[in-house]
Amino acid sequence: MSEDGEGLDDWEAAMAEQAEAEAGEGKGGDPQDDIDAIMNEQAAGGGAKPAEFDELQEDAPITVAEKKKLDTILDIPVTISMEVGRSEISIRNLLQLNQGSVVELDRVAGEPLDVLVNGTLIAHGEVVVINDKFGIRLTDVISQVERIKKLR
């Protein structure tokens, strides 16, 4: 490539020639061919334009109205529960249960428990005992993207 930009012109000419050839072939109705032709034309015509974004404010103060809205959301009560496992049994077998009966669950011993908030899985964890009370140590938190996928 020479310093006067001659090599760049050759590249642009080759891209334009390829776009024309593909445009001639693309008359069959394949949408991908049309997209490729448009992309090649844009590449030959000067390339992509840089995206423009607003400047981020690192420590943008929260307005009084925003704080009030946030306080309203933060005060909504939710129910958090831990699920050891599940089992499906018939009503006949349910009615036969009494003290000392054992119900087999679908979990293997040592497998993490499910942490549910209002019935939605948000994490997995293990049981811990602190000051004679049970607790749960979160071992895996479900990402927001995964939680949204499960809602659909």
Tell me what you see in this structure.
The chain has five helices and four strands, in the order αααβαβββα. It has 152 residues and is an alpha+beta fold. The chain starts with 5 loop residues before the first helix and ends with a helix. A four-stranded antiparallel beta sheet has the order 1-2-3-4, with no helix packed on it. Helix content is 38%, strand content 19%. The chain folds into two domains: 6-44; 78-151, SpoA-like (Surface presentation of antigens (SPOA)), CATH 2.30.330. Helix 1 packs antiparallel against helix 2 (31-44). One of its GO terms (cellular component) is plasma membrane. Keywords: Bacterial flagellum, Cell membrane, Cell projection, Chemotaxis, Cilium, Flagellar rotation, Flagellum, Membrane. Residues 1-56 are annotated as: Disordered.
Which percent band covers the strand fraction?
15-25%
What is the H-and-E element order? HHHEHEEEH
CATH superfamily of the largest domain, by name, is SpoA-like
Low-confidence parts lasting 5 or more residues at pLDDT below 50?
none
Choose one word for the global shape: elongated
Give me the Rg, rounded: 31 Å
Number of helices: 5
- Taken together, the total number of domains comes to 2
- Alpha-carbon distance between the two ends: 54 Å
Side by side, the strands of the main sheet go: 1-2-3-4
The helix-and-strand class reads: alpha+beta
GO molecular function: cytoskeletal motor activity
GO biological process, one term: chemotaxis
Domain Flagellar motor switch protein FliN-like C-terminal: 72-142
Pfam families: FliMN_C
